[in-house]
Q: What sequence folds into this?
């Protein structure tokens, strides 16, 4: 069909590893990436499991041919560069450089991972010279600009920050810009690194779990934070075919809507999550029965899973096939939408339901059950949810080409 | 090409008198300490009285301008809410960060954390208007507002029915932000009176500022103040590249240089950015030139003030004297070109057309 927007390349890094092969293997065998953090310096490091990416900053820098130490790149940007490098290698830099490109990036706290270690020096009379290059790294666009510069690209750029739905929104914007003919291709995704700021923010809200999170379980006790980056290349189907690219999936539906209920909590009856998924189905011209697998937001907080679970049950019925992959990666915040879009596309490609780790029993009033094992299932359409603070909800639907 | 986005209403809180009707830029507010702070409005008129007690200033001014813009247009609930901000609620971020360091990660107040998230104002506006529609926040330095306007234009181009979008921006100046950015050359070493900022355009640096501005936009011309015809964005561009873009912009819309009645420039007194604005004036030699950062200071979304000002100029068909930088005020204003540049290499062009009756 003419005018369809397809995904034709991807790049990813998370606590599960670097690149497609490492992720697919971990997902296949059900190996979680959660651990006590070794790089993040926090009072929670000895107690709280997190989805920390294994390489430290110097190792990430080495992968990119950058010098070790305070090289001006934040961990957020280093993660993004590694993920982006996979996409660039798969696509070829010329394809990205020579025709109108949008780079829509997403992020929640910018280079806070660096700034939080230097801030008292920033506000003191003297700032060490090697810290000064981090003064302009606090905002979300820092990673966006540095990624483009690193690869020598001059694309249309935008940085989105809608909390945990940020990179899902990046995908929507990229698709819309291609549809209107503003650009030919769009690289869309997001990045976030663990920071003391974020872990303390979520801890002050009392929704962080020390142990591995248990999405949709009766005894769930909160989320694990994670870090990572994921990027997807979007283009028109005919443009992908013309350059001989493999089509990984079609982005057939999407929806962005706001809960308008509470600054941090979802509407408890799940009506907002329901509305978001329904609108994505309408956009895709699909019925709930067409969806073969749902990659849920499933943070394992009480409020998210209660609301999202009700919405899934209402829309897809008691037999809904769904799981949350947060126990693999932790909640990677602005990267989560893109990382889980990639997971959803893999599920679709391999006709494989991804397991919801750590689920034992559902709450008494809930009929739906997440998939707990890696099951084969023929798939044509999958749906991925990303719901955030501020009531920012997004659903994406990917279909086979 | 995208359809025009028609501006129905505009609201701004700024270091000048811009919020209350009837005192347009009078009297001129100024400072001589290198930064300008907003003239506070009566925020209680626009915000839930329970919620307002914990809100920091930027949140209050963001919500108030948003609600005021909606009220002016008679819109209770827009179809979409899109914002842009360079730094979000800096003060909340600073508070949470310093508490975290000084209290060694114990006993932290979650309110500062929640409010420091860049999309918190969007959430509040959605909550106050019960808007379940499209909701988006751009955090992209000196293009933050422009991206929100571009997204609004995209939504309105896609729409098959009449739709309204609330789009706007907010940023605040804090003492620590001013102090820190001074270390990397944002501000002038010898601080002039803000009113004389542009007379010191031979030295590097500018003065800091803050503000919020919101707009209601629609895809129908009825009742509009003006329309956004096209937006062009540049990062780290050579002046010649922006010049080519200006000429393309004119050509795209069938305009001659003389058709631009007012060139509204974001010159900020920094010698390093003067060549861009000089180029713009050279491309449009017969246009009147306006400038505004002597009134607002520099911040990532200062162009929100410029767009509000442009809407006022279209509405009143007058260019306020404190704004006029070069030439004489045009008798009739049909086209305004905004040219802005922010410190971090973000340049933008926004072509506006008045909504004159045939």
A:
């Amino acid at each position: 069909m003419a005018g369809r927007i397809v995904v034709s390349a991807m790049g990813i890094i998370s606590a599960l590893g670097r690149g497609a092969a490492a992720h697919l293997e971990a997902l296949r065998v059900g190996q979680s990436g959660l651990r006590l953090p070794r790089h993040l310096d926090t009072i929670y490091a000895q107690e709280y499991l997190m989805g920390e990416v294994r390489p430290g900053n110097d190792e990430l820098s080495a992968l990119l041919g950058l010098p070790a130490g305070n090289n001006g790149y934040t961990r957020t940007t280093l993660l993004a560069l590694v993920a982006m490098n996979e996409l660039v290698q798969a696509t070829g830099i010329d394809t990205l450089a020579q025709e109108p490109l949008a780079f829509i990036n997403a992020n929640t706290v910018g280079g806070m991972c660096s700034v939080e270690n230097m801030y008292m020096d920033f506000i003191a009379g003297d700032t060490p010279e090697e810290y000064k290059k981090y003064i302009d790294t606090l905002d979300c666009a820092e990673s966006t600009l540095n990624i483009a510069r690193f690869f020598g690209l001059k694309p249309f750029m935008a940085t989105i920050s809608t909390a945990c739905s940020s990179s899902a929104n990046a995908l929507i914007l990229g698709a819309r810009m291609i549809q209107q003919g503003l650009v030919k291709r769009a690289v869309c995704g997001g990045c976030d690194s663990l920071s003391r700021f974020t872990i303390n923010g979520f801890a002050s809200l009392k929704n962080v779990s020390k142990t591995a999170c248990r999405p949709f379980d009766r005894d769930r006790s909160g989320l694990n934070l994670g870090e990572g980056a994921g990027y997807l290349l979007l283009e028109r189907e005919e443009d992908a075919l013309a350059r001989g690219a493999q089509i990984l999936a079609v982005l057939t539906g999407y929806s962005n809507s706001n809960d308008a209920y509470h600054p941090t909590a979802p509407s408890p009856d799940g009506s907002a999550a329901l509305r978001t998924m329904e609108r994505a189905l309408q956009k895709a011209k699909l019925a709930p029965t067409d969806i073969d697998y749902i990659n849920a937001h499933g943070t394992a907080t009480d409020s998210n899973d209660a609301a999202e679970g009700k919405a899934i049950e209402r829309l897809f019925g008691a037999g809904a096939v769904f799981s949350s992959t947060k126990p693999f990666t932790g909640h990677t915040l602005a990267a989560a939408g893109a990382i889980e879009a990639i997971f959803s596309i893999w599920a679709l490609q391999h006709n494989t339901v991804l397991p919801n780790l750590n689920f034992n029993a559902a709450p008494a009033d809930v009929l739906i059950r997440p998939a707990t094992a890696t099951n084969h299932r023929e798939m044509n359409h999958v749906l991925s949810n990303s719901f955030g603070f501020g009531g920012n909800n997004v659903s994406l639907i990917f279909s086979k080409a | 090409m995208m359809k025009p986005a028609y501006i129905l209403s505009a609201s701004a809180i700024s270091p000048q008198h811009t919020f209350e009707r009837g005192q347009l830029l009078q009297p001129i507010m100024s400072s001589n300490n290198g930064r300008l702070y907003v003239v506070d409005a009566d925020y209680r008129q626009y915000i839930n009285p329970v919620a307002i007690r914990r809100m920091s200033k930027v949140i209050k001014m963001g919500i108030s301008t948003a609600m005021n813009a909606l009220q002016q247009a008679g819109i209770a609930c827009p179809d979409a809410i899109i914002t842009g901000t360079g730094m979000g609620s800096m003060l909340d971020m600073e508070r949470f960060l310093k508490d975290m360091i000084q209290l060694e990660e114990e006993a932290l107040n979650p309110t500062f954390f929640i409010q420091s998230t860049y999309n918190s104002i969007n959430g509040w506006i959605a909550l106050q208007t019960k808007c379940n529609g499209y909701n988006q926040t751009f955090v992209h330095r000196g293009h933050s507002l422009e991206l929100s306007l571009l997204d609004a234009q995209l939504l309105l181009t896609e729409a098959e029915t009449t739709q309204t979008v609330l789009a706007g921006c907010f940023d605040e100046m804090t003492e620590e932000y001013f102090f820190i950015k001074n270390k990397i050359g944002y501000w002038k070493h010898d601080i002039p009176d803000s009113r004389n900022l542009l007379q010191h355009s031979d030295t590097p640096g500018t003065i800091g500022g803050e503000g919020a501005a919101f707009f209601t936009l629609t895809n129908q011309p009825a009742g509009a103040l003006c329309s956004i015809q096209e937006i062009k964005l540049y990062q780290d561009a050579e002046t010649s590249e922006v010049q080519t873009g200006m000429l393309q912009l004119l050509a795209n819309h069938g305009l001659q240089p003389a058709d631009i009645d007012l060139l509204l420039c974001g010159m900020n007194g920094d010698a390093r950015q003067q060549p861009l604005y000089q180029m713009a004036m050279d491309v449009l030699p017969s246009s009147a030139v306006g400038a505004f950062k002597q009134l607002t200071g520099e911040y990532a979304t200062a162009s929100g003030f410029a767009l509000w000002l442009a809407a006022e100029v279209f509405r009143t068909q007058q260019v306020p004297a404190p704004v006029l930088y070069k030439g004489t005020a045009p008798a009739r204003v049909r086209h305004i070109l905004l040219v802005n540049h922010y410190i971090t290499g973000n340049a933008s062009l926004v072509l506006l057309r008045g909504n004159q009756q045939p």
In short: The radius of gyration of chain B is 19 Å.
